Amino acid sequence: MTRCQRRRTSVSGAFMLPRLLCLLCFAVISLAEENTEMVNVVTERKAEESHRQDSANLLIFIILLTLTILTIWLFKHRRFRFLHETGLAMIYGLFVGIILRFGVHLPQDLNDITLTCAMNSSPTTILVNVSGRFYEYSLKGEVRDSKGHDVPNAEMLRKVTFDPEVFFNILLPPIIFHAGYSLKRRHFFRNLGSILSYAFVGTVTSCFVTGLVMYGCVVFLKVIGQLGGDFFFTDCLFFGAIVSATDPVTVLAIFNELKVDVDLYALLFGEMHILVSIVAYQPEGDNRHTFDGSALLKSLGVFLGVFSGSFAMGAATGVMTALVTKFTKLRDFPLLETALFFLMSWSTFLLAEACGFTGVVAVLFCGITQAHYTYNNLSAESKSRSKQLFELLDFLAENFIFSYMGLTLFSFQHHVFNPLFVIGAFLAIFLGRAANIYPLSFLLNLGRKNKIASNFQHVMMFSGLRGAMTFALSIRDTATYARQMMFSTTLLIVFFTVWVCGGGTTPMLSLMHIRVGVDTDQDNSVTPDGMTQKSTKHESAWPFRLWYTFDHNYLKPFLTHSGPPLTSTLPACCGPIARCLTSSQAYENAGQLHDEDTELILNDDSSLMYSDMTVSTDAHGMPTPSTSQAGLYSLARTSDDPLDRELVFGGTRLVLPTDDPSDPLTSFPPPPPSPPLSDPLRHRV
Amino acid sequence: MTRCQRRRTSVSGAFMLPRLLCLLCFAVISLAEENTEMVNVVTERKAEESHRQDSANLLIFIILLTLTILTIWLFKHRRFRFLHETGLAMIYGLFVGIILRFGVHLPQDLNDITLTCAMNSSPTTILVNVSGRFYEYSLKGEVRDSKGHDVPNAEMLRKVTFDPEVFFNILLPPIIFHAGYSLKRRHFFRNLGSILSYAFVGTVTSCFVTGLVMYGCVVFLKVIGQLGGDFFFTDCLFFGAIVSATDPVTVLAIFNELKVDVDLYALLFGEMHILVSIVAYQPEGDNRHTFDGSALLKSLGVFLGVFSGSFAMGAATGVMTALVTKFTKLRDFPLLETALFFLMSWSTFLLAEACGFTGVVAVLFCGITQAHYTYNNLSAESKSRSKQLFELLDFLAENFIFSYMGLTLFSFQHHVFNPLFVIGAFLAIFLGRAANIYPLSFLLNLGRKNKIASNFQHVMMFSGLRGAMTFALSIRDTATYARQMMFSTTLLIVFFTVWVCGGGTTPMLSLMHIRVGVDTDQDNSVTPDGMTQKSTKHESAWPFRLWYTFDHNYLKPFLTHSGPPLTSTLPACCGPIARCLTSSQAYENAGQLHDEDTELILNDDSSLMYSDMTVSTDAHGMPTPSTSQAGLYSLARTSDDPLDRELVFGGTRLVLPTDDPSDPLTSFPPPPPSPPLSDPLRHRV
């Protein structure tokens, strides 16, 4: 009945979980204090020991991150650009993984008790009656005997293993929120149609192509007897979905730092975002081993419902925050304002999860809404505070994930590396990506006035980096043989794409003659390299124009202090309500085109994102072939900004009423201006 | 063998723990996927349900905090000052507690399994053999049958209960770090002797007096038969220790906002800090039910060892951060710098815990060291970033603790309210505080040139608020009857002190004729209300003078960019090393008295602490009797700042060499200046 073997589960860790769990033990120990003194002291010692061990484990990660930061600095300082910081974090993680696995030898603590009982399933909680007292035990997971003992330091390695859900639920949200918060919205909306096509149609294509190729590979493996367990068709599809989720973070970081051409950026970025959203939903769908059409349709319906629900929830929280910050004078107290902003954004995630939607999607749209509306209401200090806070959280979470990724290559106990499967997977993601980009670009180009050039397509093909998202999805479930093999393979794919594709982005861009060092907010028409055809492309995005007008005339004035007063945009019958809802600042701003606020976040972010102002001004000295263009860019940036802004706001100005801003409380609003579409300049926006 | 009863432990929650744990369940569910599909689906549903529930619970707290923030704003906006924000957070917590307890009725989920086994103790982990598969279960705690079912919604209430250790290990560290980081060091060091006396001697006195009074009370209760369980003498002492820990946070917040007289502030603040340190160690000591002298001496030795170890660890991490930020050019990348700063500060806590010291103490001294040295090396952006980040963390943690405090008055399942015990406790803390303050002040006044006036003593007596620290200590262990009674009583004490003492601070201060609205960095000699005797008081603090000289001549130049170059303060033989260690900025700053950096943090903090600049400038309009003084203060503040600074730096200037700052690399340092003590102005510092 009693087998001596002290164990800790492989799902025991968490961002703070190792410590928490051990503290829990602590508390538990104290709860059991009435036992005999001797037993108590021993257990207390053990709990303390375990607590120390957990602190030490977390310390390893902190030191890893610290080292990464120092090396990032060194790289930036010396202008090494062949390896991105996420790649660095991974390498450090790998080293520590190797040391933990092969370098450290700890004696295994052997005392554990095995009970045998006749149950047909494992309950989540059991009560154990120990000589009259009842103790509660909670399920930690199934233990597999055969594997845990092949590896030395199994105990140690299990201790540095974190709960997989931590990645999905704690580390991803700040990353996704920050991505939404710092999204270049203008370009995003301009290319909305293409982005949605790439995201929805492209992902599904890519997912199925990858899945089918993998299924072929698996069948082949089975035939030649290289497969050690079950691998169903749905597993293949799931694998396809996982590895189709290109990483918004890594690509964003690289492209942002290189100041790559705006449209490519928008296309990639948008695609990735919605991809994220799709795959974020994936693991919650049914994952049966059979495949039929009606089930697919049904789950598509569920997916759409969940997606739109999450979207609505994220937008709603954003709107609520905007209203609160608008109608209270919270801006006098930046600390309170930032705290509120942070809490409301976090509550989006919780709210979505509590309602059964996906928190990650909600957080993404919440970030976009917050940046679009709430940001305008914040005080100057809160603006910088909130940006810096989310930037820091994003940075820490991202680097934590990547260094953990490196570590887990050695510390994970159930790796299944199948060379043929790995080769098949690399082939499959290549084909899947190609099936996503090229045919779709061809179709889109039929409708687009501003064609997606073939060099753009090659870069989009090449920079399909897989990162934090893919990792979080694949580590979420590593129970079966299939999932373990998928996890190991995914890890290799992430390493490869981050190191090779990430490191190769700069050469690739120059090879494809894509402009590097382009200010993301600079209008294309003012750049000197003959890409003027792009200045008219937004004519095609009519839903954007429609949305923009509605947003500018009604939503912005309602939710923020900027935009034209509602009194001038709403029909006269709504006068009293409009006066209530319009802030006095809006009247003052009426003549001043206060939309600068919104644009500021764009301008600021491009330099603040990774806060290396020196790098962005050092663009001349960059060892890329784009030096001369970068120089031109710097010139253009300083001289053309006002022009750019005027061009951009050309349409806005027409919508604005011409009433006297010095008299904010005119009892009757002026008649609504002539429809904006009548003016040729309107097309610019 | 199988008893139907689904349970969740009362120690299951955590700052993120509810979610994490449930996610864990999630992961567990997926691990067990190979079971039959049907069981799977049911368990998955359940896990999902539980996950939603946990998200909803966390959401309650977020909404609570949001409401608190909005109300704080309203109070600040309308200038209500009778209730502090922490008091507000508590009230909201109370409301939610009442609603959860009496308003919501959820059906109880009944399915749990009880195993009986013959063990003489409860192991931390057990393996359960369920029809051939092994599942791991971990101990959560002892379950008491009788109590959990008297209360409706027991399940619900247990879900909103957090792991007590969370407060101590996750929420306290940021609060304590922030307190250390924003400590007004000059006044702290000036009154170091008195502070240490109050802290060490005073706390021990207070602890024993309270403990003895409580023991008398307990004996009385036992005689009249009102005691429902054991209550040992050590329990009384522990209670004394807990309630002797006055709150640095609450008092700090109130005094800081009111800008109370500098010395009172320093005395109270310093006292509280070291109190915190003492009691932070307490729960780790032996807690036997017997009492003997040798054990006391031994644990005193252990305490001193742990205290100095934690101190050294905190200081060491701070020094390391200072060195890293000095010798790298990390300041070009504020994000990296802030991230490093944050991680290093956090690692202090983990390092101390991993080595068996107390993280809280280490974090306090780390904060002080960081503010004293590292802060000088940071870039301007990182300075504001780090301050804002820690301020936000502090604010959120503090308000979370206080709203949880309110909630737990109703949600905690094992309250033991004994009216006589409560009355005894209030009497005991009053006597304990009196025994701490008055005799010690009398003794200190014998040695102090600048006497601690009796009105100061009364205010110190009155404002012994108990807050987050006391709560975290008392909730840490609520297993026995004695501890439960202590917890319930402590809760009432905290409520009383925060509402009555906290709310009554303003009237009390005016009653005692203590100046309100004093700039904490303003030298006393320039204020117009006849308190000039204080301007000479620092003569008595000779250890501070000694320390200051050493710090200014060697430590500051070594660790930061400020201070005189080491080449001028070290003997000539150390020339090469000195040149290596001195940054080029130090030479440039040599003539400029770069210590302003250090003072800036002081000046900034007094207004930044709660970021209500408007309140501090609104001091004229405050409904306190000190209006005229506040007016005078405002006058003095603007006109006398340069004078103040000059006075303060008078001593500094003498230490500085008179070499030419335009020639930073003089090969031979000038001879060391004449001993600073020879100059009368030196006494000012």
Tell me about this structure:
2 copies of one chain form a homodimer. By secondary structure, the first copy, chain A, is mainly alpha-helical. Chain A is 66% helix and 3% strand. Chain A contains 28 helices and 3 strands. Chain A has helices at 17-31, 37-78, 85-103, 145-148, 154-159, 164-181, 185-190, 192-223, 233-244, 248-258, 262-281, 293-327, 334-354, 359-377, 380-411, 419-447, 454-462, 468-475, 481-503, 505-511, 542-559, 566-569, 575-581, 584-589, 596-608, 613-617, 627-648, 650-655; strands spanning 113-117, 125-130, 133-143. In chain A, strands 2-3 form a two-stranded antiparallel sheet. In chain A, strand 2 and strand 3 form a beta hairpin. In chain A, helix 10 runs antiparallel to helix 11 and helix 18 runs antiparallel to helix 19. The radius of gyration of chain A is 28 Å and the shape is globular. Residues 1-37, 145-151, 280-289, 520-540 and 591-685 of chain A have low confidence and may be disordered. At the A-B interface, helix 1, helix 2, strand 1, strand 2 and strand 3 of A face helix 1, helix 2, strand 1, strand 2 and strand 3 of B.
